[in-house]
Protein backbone atom coordinates (compact mmCIF):
# COMPACT_ATOMS: atom_id res chain seq x y z
CA UNK A 1 0.00 0.00 0.00
CA UNK A 2 2.85 2.38 0.83
CA UNK A 3 4.32 1.85 -2.64
CA UNK A 4 1.05 2.92 -4.28
CA UNK A 5 0.79 5.96 -2.01
CA UNK A 6 4.40 6.95 -2.64
CA UNK A 7 3.98 6.45 -6.39
CA UNK A 8 0.82 8.61 -6.51
CA UNK A 9 2.46 11.27 -4.36
CA UNK A 10 5.60 11.27 -6.49
CA UNK A 11 3.57 11.48 -9.71
CA UNK A 12 1.69 14.56 -8.50
CA UNK A 13 4.78 16.22 -7.01
CA UNK A 14 6.79 15.41 -10.13
CA UNK A 15 4.65 17.98 -11.99
CA UNK A 16 6.28 20.69 -9.87
CA UNK A 17 9.11 22.53 -11.53
CA UNK A 18 7.71 22.36 -15.05
CA UNK A 19 6.10 25.81 -14.85
CA UNK A 20 7.16 28.65 -12.57
CA UNK A 21 3.67 30.16 -12.81
CA UNK A 22 1.92 26.94 -11.75
CA UNK A 23 4.46 26.40 -8.98
CA UNK A 24 3.80 29.93 -7.70
CA UNK A 25 0.03 29.39 -7.91
CA UNK A 26 0.16 26.08 -6.04
CA UNK A 27 2.39 27.50 -3.29
CA UNK A 28 0.00 30.46 -2.99
CA UNK A 29 -3.09 28.20 -2.89
CA UNK A 30 -1.44 26.02 -0.27
CA UNK A 31 -0.62 29.02 1.92
CA UNK A 32 -3.74 31.13 1.37
CA UNK A 33 -6.46 28.56 0.63
CA UNK A 34 -7.60 27.89 4.18
CA UNK A 35 -7.61 31.55 5.32
CA UNK A 36 -9.53 32.56 2.18
CA UNK A 37 -12.12 29.83 2.72
CA UNK A 38 -12.56 30.90 6.34
CA UNK A 39 -13.06 34.51 5.18
CA UNK A 40 -15.54 33.35 2.52
CA UNK A 41 -17.54 31.53 5.20
CA UNK A 42 -17.38 34.38 7.72
CA UNK A 43 -18.29 36.97 5.10
CA UNK A 44 -21.64 35.28 4.52
CA UNK A 45 -22.79 36.09 8.06
CA UNK A 46 -24.34 39.34 6.82
CA UNK A 47 -26.00 37.83 3.77
CA UNK A 48 -29.55 39.13 3.33
CA UNK A 49 -31.34 36.09 1.89
CA UNK A 50 -32.14 33.04 3.98
CA UNK A 51 -30.42 34.55 6.98
CA UNK A 52 -31.40 32.05 9.75
CA UNK A 53 -30.58 28.96 7.69
CA UNK A 54 -27.42 30.50 6.25
CA UNK A 55 -26.20 31.47 9.69
CA UNK A 56 -26.97 27.98 11.00
CA UNK A 57 -24.84 26.49 8.21
CA UNK A 58 -22.03 28.97 8.87
CA UNK A 59 -21.93 28.00 12.54
CA UNK A 60 -22.06 24.31 11.57
CA UNK A 61 -19.16 24.86 9.16
CA UNK A 62 -17.13 26.55 11.89
CA UNK A 63 -17.88 23.78 14.37
CA UNK A 64 -17.00 21.14 11.75
CA UNK A 65 -13.73 22.94 11.04
CA UNK A 66 -12.80 23.02 14.74
CA UNK A 67 -13.95 19.47 15.46
CA UNK A 68 -12.01 18.15 12.45
CA UNK A 69 -8.80 19.79 13.64
CA UNK A 70 -9.42 18.47 17.17
CA UNK A 71 -9.87 14.96 15.76
CA UNK A 72 -6.56 15.38 13.93
CA UNK A 73 -4.87 16.10 17.24
CA UNK A 74 -6.26 12.84 18.63
CA UNK A 75 -5.03 10.96 15.57
CA UNK A 76 -1.57 12.47 16.03
CA UNK A 77 -1.36 10.79 19.43
CA UNK A 78 -1.17 7.47 17.55
CA UNK A 79 0.21 8.33 14.11
CA UNK A 80 3.61 9.96 13.58
CA UNK A 81 4.13 9.77 9.86
CA UNK A 82 7.28 11.24 8.35
CA UNK A 83 6.84 13.88 5.66
CA UNK A 84 7.33 12.66 2.08
CA UNK A 85 10.27 14.99 1.47
CA UNK A 86 12.04 13.46 4.49
CA UNK A 87 11.56 10.04 2.90
CA UNK A 88 12.91 11.18 -0.47
CA UNK A 89 9.53 10.77 -2.19
CA UNK A 90 9.01 14.45 -3.03
CA UNK A 91 10.99 17.60 -3.58
CA UNK A 92 9.80 20.51 -1.49
CA UNK A 93 8.74 23.90 -2.89
CA UNK A 94 8.29 25.54 0.53
CA UNK A 95 9.99 25.55 3.91
CA UNK A 96 9.87 22.20 5.72
CA UNK A 97 7.43 21.53 8.53
CA UNK A 98 8.17 19.93 11.89
CA UNK A 99 4.66 18.48 12.23
CA UNK A 100 3.82 14.88 11.33
CA UNK A 101 2.44 14.34 7.85
CA UNK A 102 -0.76 12.42 8.60
CA UNK A 103 -3.48 13.67 8.51
CA UNK A 104 -3.39 16.91 6.56
CA UNK A 105 -4.88 19.79 8.55
CA UNK A 106 -5.44 21.73 5.31
CA UNK A 107 -7.51 18.88 3.88
CA UNK A 108 -9.43 18.47 7.12
CA UNK A 109 -10.29 22.14 7.38
CA UNK A 110 -11.34 22.64 3.77
CA UNK A 111 -13.35 19.43 3.48
CA UNK A 112 -15.07 20.10 6.82
CA UNK A 113 -16.31 23.42 5.44
CA UNK A 114 -17.43 21.94 2.11
CA UNK A 115 -19.13 18.95 3.74
CA UNK A 116 -20.97 21.17 6.24
CA UNK A 117 -22.45 23.25 3.44
CA UNK A 118 -23.41 20.20 1.39
CA UNK A 119 -24.89 18.29 4.36
CA UNK A 120 -27.01 21.30 5.32
CA UNK A 121 -28.49 21.68 1.85
CA UNK A 122 -26.52 24.66 0.58
CA UNK A 123 -25.55 22.94 -2.64
CA UNK A 124 -24.18 25.81 -4.74
CA UNK A 125 -21.75 27.26 -2.18
CA UNK A 126 -21.00 23.72 -1.00
CA UNK A 127 -19.86 22.73 -4.48
CA UNK A 128 -17.70 25.85 -4.73
CA UNK A 129 -16.15 25.05 -1.36
CA UNK A 130 -15.65 21.44 -2.48
CA UNK A 131 -13.80 22.59 -5.62
CA UNK A 132 -11.63 24.85 -3.45
CA UNK A 133 -10.99 21.97 -1.02
CA UNK A 134 -9.83 19.72 -3.84
CA UNK A 135 -7.52 22.45 -5.14
CA UNK A 136 -6.04 23.14 -1.70
CA UNK A 137 -5.47 19.46 -0.97
CA UNK A 138 -3.94 18.82 -4.39
CA UNK A 139 -1.61 21.77 -3.81
CA UNK A 140 -0.34 20.17 -0.60
CA UNK A 141 0.81 17.07 -2.51
CA UNK A 142 2.03 19.14 -5.47
CA UNK A 143 4.33 21.29 -3.30
CA UNK A 144 5.70 18.17 -1.60
CA UNK A 145 4.43 18.55 1.97
CA UNK A 146 2.02 15.59 2.07
CA UNK A 147 1.49 12.09 0.76
CA UNK A 148 -1.70 11.55 -1.21
CA UNK A 149 -3.05 9.42 1.64
CA UNK A 150 -2.40 12.27 4.10
CA UNK A 151 -4.83 14.53 2.25
CA UNK A 152 -7.33 11.69 1.78
CA UNK A 153 -7.17 10.99 5.52
CA UNK A 154 -7.56 14.68 6.30
CA UNK A 155 -10.53 14.94 3.93
CA UNK A 156 -12.15 11.97 5.64
CA UNK A 157 -11.60 13.52 9.07
CA UNK A 158 -13.22 16.76 7.90
CA UNK A 159 -16.21 14.92 6.44
CA UNK A 160 -16.65 12.83 9.60
CA UNK A 161 -16.53 16.02 11.67
CA UNK A 162 -19.23 17.60 9.50
CA UNK A 163 -21.44 14.52 9.92
CA UNK A 164 -20.95 14.60 13.70
CA UNK A 165 -21.84 18.29 13.86
CA UNK A 166 -24.88 17.66 11.65
CA UNK A 167 -26.02 14.97 14.09
CA UNK A 168 -25.82 17.15 17.22
CA UNK A 169 -26.27 20.77 16.10
CA UNK A 170 -29.85 21.18 14.91
CA UNK A 171 -31.37 24.17 13.23
CA UNK A 172 -34.02 26.02 15.21
CA UNK A 173 -32.99 24.90 18.68
CA UNK A 174 -32.73 27.48 21.45
CA UNK A 175 -28.91 27.40 21.23
CA UNK A 176 -29.04 27.77 17.44
CA UNK A 177 -31.42 30.72 17.61
CA UNK A 178 -29.22 32.41 20.22
CA UNK A 179 -26.01 31.91 18.22
CA UNK A 180 -27.49 32.87 14.85
CA UNK A 181 -29.14 36.04 16.20
CA UNK A 182 -25.80 37.62 17.09
CA UNK A 183 -25.21 40.84 15.12
Question: How are the elements arranged and paired?
Answer:
Layout: H1 2-13, H2 20-42, H3 51-76, H4 105-119, H5 123-142, H6 148-168, H7 174-180
Domain Phosphatidic acid phosphatase type 2/haloperoxidase: 56-166
Organism: Bradyrhizobium centrolobii
Keywords: Membrane, Transmembrane, Transmembrane helix
Would you summarize the structure shown here?
The protein is an all-alpha fold and 183 residues long. Helix content is 68%, strand content 0%.
Explain how this protein is built:
By secondary structure, this protein is mostly helical. The protein has a single domain (2-180), classed as Vanadium-containing Chloroperoxidase, domain 2. 68% of the residues lie in helices and 0% in strands. It is built from 7 helices and no strands. It has helices spanning 2-13, 20-42, 51-76, 105-119, 123-142, 148-168, 174-180.
Amino acid sequence: MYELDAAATHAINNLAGASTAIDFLMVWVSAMGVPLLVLAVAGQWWRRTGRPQTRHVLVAAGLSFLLGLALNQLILLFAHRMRPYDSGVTHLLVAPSNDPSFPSDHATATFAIAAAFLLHGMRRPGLWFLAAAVLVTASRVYIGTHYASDVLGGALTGIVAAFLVRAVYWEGTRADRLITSIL
